[in-house]
Specification:
It contains 27 helices and 39 strands. Helix 8 packs across helix 9 and helix 24 packs antiparallel against helix 25. It has 946 residues and is of the alpha+beta class. It folds into 7 domains: 75 residues; 41 residues, no CATH class; 156 residues, Nucleotidyltransferase, domain 5 (2-Layer Sandwich), CATH 3.30.420.10; 94 residues, no CATH class; 220 residues, no CATH class; 112 residues, no CATH class; 93 residues, Ubiquitin-like (UB roll), CATH 3.10.20.
Length: 946
């Protein structure tokens, strides 16, 4: 601050805790001192209080250091703060628990205003709780608690997983065991963690016997998967070391080995081009190679095998993972079979003398020493070998070729950059060529481009052929099978290229006429900001019961994958009649002596209509011609600017209700009409109707009333849902699915297989460790995949549900693992198909008892039985039963029980309850229609096991 005595100006300021008084006016030394004293006295401070003044020279200006003035004028804001005295620990708490060294340095600084009264450093609990960190991990095991320098002294183990996808045997985990002294590693594969104990027992027996040593310590983490190993360790004298949680370094040998093995396995797998499901073989092979490779952790970089045996390992037996080769196969008694097959080497381990070789033709892995023609680095010497491998598994070889092609493109990329400059006009032409390239010539061109990768191999490949196990030397070309049963086209373009193109054009025309006559849509200009759905043509060849062509049908559908719930649709129910309910209609038709008649609703889908409040727009479908007048009327230039807007139509349900029919609560696809004149029953399966009644007049009246939907009467049922029917007014009905079975056999390449006598036999054992089917595409009969298996099982389920109770149990067994089927499951499915081939003419009889039937004597009865502990894995039983109405079989069940029965009697009671539930459903359905059922209901059970 500045002061003045009317003659001079002087400034009093604070610097480093003291007052500096500078006189700004020009005067002598004594005058300056007098001015300072006058300034002090003017503030009411006695001059006696000034005890010491020191004259300073500061920037050529005299200043007086007045320590006493600082204390005297403290009340006037020009004094220094008082010095605070406190111990070191109190200052430590006040300043947020800073380090003691930092606090002492701050307190000792001049002008800090703090004086330490005690420098005692006590342990602070707060600092320990909130600042403590991990100690530095030792890079070398000291061996104080375990003999790490002794072979077998310490075995480190860890588990890696779950890994996706599963390998060919369903494994998801890798368990490794590493010898701390020699760095020898053994990698095991497991489906779950609990197998760690069994794998350790396996390793102990192998390692101790093979290398004449003794395992002393097993070091693992604290995971629950190793809890069961305690008993084995106590029995064998092995100590357990458990590493602390969240400290990977304490078990670092095993943790680091995971990374080493997986890095090598990934390189081997990706370089070979094999699918990811072969990662299990790559892991085991990587461990085998590491044990024979130089290790930097060992003395003089010796390999683990050399440390254990004292001998340098032989590297000549190690080949490239995935190398093609020829494998000698025992032909047995078949003298004219090939002596070798093409395969790929996938593994070699310490417990087998030979190699594990994958044979694409049979999709199996065999262990053998008899391999030759192993592929070398010179691929020109192996052209024939590669060609045969490509024929056996084209999809596998295609992935290898794509990888090689990508590598070649990367190498040539710098040279092509200058030449790949194209004008926009040329780019448009190229895109236009791609769009038109879906014709026959374009397909041939694409195939020719692919053949350039291996021209010699492709030219050497003969026509594909199909082989069966029991056909001997007989081979049926696939082309012959396709000639017998020509597949339906999958889309509009295939239909236009098909030899039956005129038939398909006529079917398309009929479908368009039906759509327009039902006022299904209207053509509008394409609205802005609206979602348009694509359409697709579905073509189907309709046949009679004897297999002859009935008609060619084309159906226009909207792509369901583009529809969103609440925007394009709300109701997702489709009328699908249950087979038990359908057979019940045939039973009542025979009781009333009025044979069931078949009705077909033409273009039923277009009569289903659109739901209320939804605006749905479609792209103009393929094959639809729009007149130029309509284009001009709507103000557009081409049909790509048009759209179809769906409008409301009629529902089948509303028409039936309007005619007085009631929908059954028990069976939603069964409608009945009961009045004084009798009863009429109608079963609905999408667009197919089954109609019967107490009199022919009622059935005729129904077809007349349904003229609003143009219902087509097909007479007495001869074919319904692919099932052939034969009616005898005295006996009843005969059902068969000959054409369905033959079509299934043709589809899956089984039309020429030899038949078997039983659908299931030695396959009762569950092959839980079997090889998984590949999950990489649609597949083929020669190389089945999961989709191929699921498609075959779906066909078998339909056949077993409709007319073949004799395969119900076999189909029940084969459907237990449809989500991840094994090769054994595929073989069982083929065996069922072979059984159907031998019994293709077998018919299912729905014959009435000799005494006759009447509506007053409707009897519902059932038969039940149980296979106690039929599943040998989980010991659960299987229930079986047959349902009969008036002595005619209407249904059957084959179900696995949800609980484990403790006795045969308990299993039988569970089966009885399941069959009884089905019987009560039939009784309730008949009662709802108004048909009386004779009581009591009969249930026939097996009393021999009670």
């Amino acid at each position: 601050m500045r002061e003045s005595d009317e003659r001079r100006i002087f400034e009093v300021r604070r610097a480093n805790g003291v007052l500096l008084v500078d006189i700004l006016g020009g005067c002598g030394k004594q005058e300056r001192v007098n001015a300072v004293m006058a300034a002090v006295e003017s503030r009411g401070i006695s001059a006696d209080a000034v005890t010491e003044c020191t004259l300073l020279e500061l920037h050529n200006r005299l200043g007086y250091l007045v320590n006493a003035v600082m204390a005297a004028v403290e009340s006037r804001s020009i004094s220094a703060d008082a010095v605070t005295e406190c111990p070191l620990l109190e200052l430590h708490n006040r300043l947020g628990h800073l380090a003691f060294d930092t606090l002492e340095r701050m307190a000792d600084a001049p002008g800090s205003g703090v004086k330490l009264t005690s420098r005692v450093r006590l342990n602070c609990l707060i600092c320990a709780q909130d600042k403590q960190h991990k100690v530095n991990q030792s890079k070398k095991d000291t061996g104080q608690n375990a003999p790490v320098d002794k072979i077998g002294g310490v075995i480190c183990s860890d588990i890696k997983g779950p890994m996706t996808p599963r390998d060919r045997h369903g494994n998801r985990y890798m368990i490794n065991f590493v010898d701390h002294s020699s760095n020898y590693v053994r990698a095991f594969l497991a489906k779950n963690k609990v197998e760690a104990t069994k794998k350790f027992e396996h390793f102990v027996v192998f390692f101790e016997k093979e290398y004449n040593c003794r395992i002393h310590v097993l070091r693992t983490d604290g995971g629950g998967e190793y809890m069961n190993v305690e008993d084995f360790c106590r029995a064998t004298g092995v100590r357990r070391h458990v590493s602390e949680a969240n400290n990977q370094a304490s078990n670092g040998k095993a943790e680091r080995m995971h990374r080493t093995i997986l890095n090598m396995a990934r390189c081997m797998l990706f370089a070979s081009g094999l699918p990811l499901k072969f990662w299990g073989y790559a892991v085991e092979y990587a461990a085998y190679v590491l044990n024979r490779s130089a290790c930097s952790a060992n003395t003089r970089r010796m390999s683990p095998i050399e440390v254990l045996t004292g001998k340098c390992p032989d590297m000549a037996g190690i080949v490239t993972f995935g190398s093609p080769c020829t494998v000698n196969r025992d032909p047995g008694k078949r003298a004219w079979q090939p002596r070798a097959e093409v395969g790929m080497i996938v593994e070699k381990n310490d417990e087998t003398k030979g190699f594990k070789v994958y044979i694409p033709k049979d999709m199996v892995v065999v262990t053998t020493q008899h391999i030759e023609n192993v592929e070398t680095l010179d691929t020109k010497q192996n052209v024939q070998l590669q060609a045969q491998l490509m024929r056996e598994d084209p999809e596998l070889w295609r992935s290898i070729e794509e990888r090689e092609e990508a590598t070649q493109q990367k190498e040539k990329a710098p040279k092509k950059k200058k030449k790949q400059v194209k004008s926009k006009k040329n780019k448009k032409k190229a895109h236009g060529t791609d769009d038109v390239g879906e014709n026959a010539e374009g397909d041939q061109g694409s195939e020719g481009a692919g053949e350039q990768l291996a021209p010699t191999a492709a030219s050497a490949a003969p026509a594909a052929r199909m082989q069966t196990r029991h056909m001997g030397a007989k081979h049926v070309p696939v082309q012959v099978v396709h000639a017998v049963v020509t597949p339906d086209p999958r889309n509009y373009r295939e239909a236009m290229r098909d030899a039956r193109a005129n038939k398909w054009k006529e079917a398309i025309k009929v479908e368009f006429v039906a759509l327009e006559s039902n006022n299904t849509w209207e053509v509008v200009a394409r609205p802005r900001n609206s979602k348009l759905l694509h359409t697709k043509w579905v073509f189907k060849t309709k046949t009679h019961a004897d297999g002859t062509v009935e008609r060619y049908k084309g159906r226009l559908v909207v792509c369901g994958n583009e529809q969103e719930y609440g925007i394009d649709y709300i109701v997702n129910f489709s009328a699908v009649l249950d087979m038990t309910t359908g057979k019940l209609i045939f039973v009542m038709a025979h009781v009333w002596r009025v044979p069931a008649r078949h009705g077909d609703v033409p273009s039923a889908y277009v009569k289903a209509g659109k739901e209320e409040g939804l605006e749905i727009y479609l792209y103009i479908p393929d094959g639809m011609e729009i007149p130029d007048e309509l284009l001009a009327l709507l103000g557009v230039k081409h049909k790509g600017q048009l759209a179809f807007r769906l409008i409301k139509s009629l529902f089948l349900h509303k028409i039936l209700v309007k005619l007085g029919f009631c929908q059954c609560y028990t069976g939603g696809c069964l409608y009945y009409k009961r009045d004084a004149g009798g009863v009429t029953l109608v079963g609905v399966y999408v667009d197919d109707l089954l109609v019967t009644g107490t009199s022919n007049a009622r059935v005729d009246a129904f077809f007349e009333d349904m003229a609003v939907l143009e219902l087509k009467g097909l007479g007495v049922v001869s074919k319904f849902l692919g099932i052939g029917f034969e009616y005898d007014k005295d006996k009843g009905w005969l059902l068969e699915q000959r054409q369905v079975i033959l079509g299934m056999l043709d589809k899956f390449g089984l039309s020429e297989v030899s038949a078997v006598r039983v659908p299931i036999g030695g396959e009762l054992e569950n092959d839980v460790d079997g090889e998984l089917l590949p999950n990489d595409g649609a597949g083929s009969p020669q190389r089945p995949t999961v989709k191929t298996f699921q498609s075959l099982v779906g066909s078998l389920l339909w056949i077993a549900r409709c007319t073949r109770p004799d395969i119900a149990y076999a189909v029940h067994r084969v459907t237990r693992r449809t989500h991840e089927p094994r090769v054994s499951d595929w073989r069982l499915a083929k065996k069922i198909a072979r059984y159907l081939k031998g019994t293709v003419d077998t018919k299912f009889a729905m014959h009435a008892p000799r005494g006759g039937m009447s509506e007053d004597t409707i009897v519902v009865e059932g038969y039940s039985d149980a296979d106690f502990a039929g599943d040998r894995v989980d010991r659960k039983s299987v229930s079986g039963g047959v349902l009969m109405v008036c002595g005619m079989v209407v249904g059957w069940i084959c179900k696995k029980q949800s609980s484990v029965a403790l006795s045969t009697m308990e299993a039988e009671f569970v089966a009885d309850s399941q069959v009884t539930a089905e019987m009560l459903g039939i009784v309730e359905l008949l009662s709802e229609i108004g048909i009386k059922v004779k009581v009591p209901y009969k249930l026939h059970v097996d009393t021999s096991r009670r």
